Amino acid sequence: MAYIACEKDINLSHHQNMKAFSYLLVGLLLLTAVPFALFAQTDQIARLEKEAKNAQGQRKIQLLFELSKVQMEAKRYDDGVSALKEAAQVARKERVSSTIAQVNKRRAEYIMTYAPNLRKYNSEVLDALERSINENESTLTDQILGLLYRLENRNSDRRIDEKVGKLISGIESKQEAISLEAQRKLDEQEFKEFRKRAEGEKFEDYKTLQAERIKLDSAVEKLAVHTENLNRLNKVRQEQIDQLSEQKAASELDLEKKLRRIDSLEFVAYRDSMVNVENRRMIEGQQVEIRRRDAEIKLSKTKTTLFVVLASLVFLVSLFLFMRYRSSQKHNQTLAAKNDIIAREKEKSDRLLLNILPAKVADELKEEGKVKTQYFESATVMFADFCQFSKIASEISPEKLIEDLDYCFSKFDEIVASYGVEKIKTVGDAYMCVAGVPNPVKDHASRMIQCAQEIQAFLEIWNSSRKEDGFPEFQARIGVHSGPLIAGVVGTAKFAYDIWGETVNIADR
Q1: CA 410 to CA 387: how far, in whole Å?
Q2: Average model confidence (pLDDT) for the chain?
Q3: What is the Cα–Cα distance from 480 to 420, expressed in whole angstroms?
Q4: CA–CA distance, 84 with 127 (Å, rounded to integer)
Q5: Angle of helix 77-94 relative to helix 57-73, nearest 10 degrees?
């Protein structure tokens, strides 16, 4: 047993020695590699400086950017920033607006990427972004706006924050104006197309639809204004709470000072009384008892006065705390009522969003702020429209036509939902849906065929009753096709979930 223990100790010692030797070898390799790396980096800087000095135009700008990157990686930040400044000067000599804007934008990116924690260069970043904005290069607007947000988050200088805020406000105002103009043109184009289609099909209900659209837009605007007012009110309430908290802290501090002052006065009074007793005892030995009694009477009066003062202060503090508690209760009740209103409005907005988009897509839009386009390897698309719809429209009144379409498409919605099929949209008398999107399923083709058969069965029963009443029949043409497709949401205003691809085109044809 002793031999086995000794052998284990020897093996353990050997293992530790080998481990220490490995660490030593790695350390030597690192110490050897670092000087070589620094030498190679210095040599690269010298080479780039020489090439940039002899180059012209775009080539010189490119070399200066490479030189700046290498210098900043070598911790020579001032040299790197100087190289970026020189690149901006070369771009200005070119007198090409797009080049100047692009170079200044890259200049800001390099400083924020390779010198991320050096806030002394924030003014250089701000100067580069201002010069890029002044060139009015619209293709760089979103990138510049993102850099401004990054600069605002990493900066602690109030002066720079104010300039960044003004630049962000200016860009957002310009983008909003451009977006409104583009939306106006798009609305005009949609109106012309809709009017042309309505005239061709004798569709006379445009004014009613336009009025409903205006009402919906007005309701959305009112909801946005109401939400903004609630946010502003919450901010004001929070400021009032902070002010009251500061006042409470100041009152408590003042009360503490007063209590200390009272203690000090009590101590001084007691000390003075003791000194008086000692002096009088030394001067008038015969009147010691009388003096002591006088001191005790004075001390008793002082204690009584102190007790009255303390009792008054305790009463005032209790009264203040009670009033503060009542005020806080009222504020909490008001805040709870406002929160209930906000919750109800949010529930309405969620219901409206779920009526426009699938639940999975709506959740992604609320969480991420956008919807990613998805590719589906296999799904089934169905198109359904009515034969001789223009003839039917000419034989019945517009009111009856819309009522019949609404009834028919509502039944389609029930049938489609029962098979787990997603409705995409309706265009005129055409109805479009897809199976396997956005939630993939293996039996999407079977579901769609059963859905189409049930739709035809419903139309057969419905047409038999319409025929007895003397109304024209609605005969549906249905196209179904399976294959790959793309699904997503396009645009940021009046968006809708849609699908694209050859599968959709074949099903339509």
Answers
A1: 19
A2: 77
A3: 16
A4: 12
A5: 170
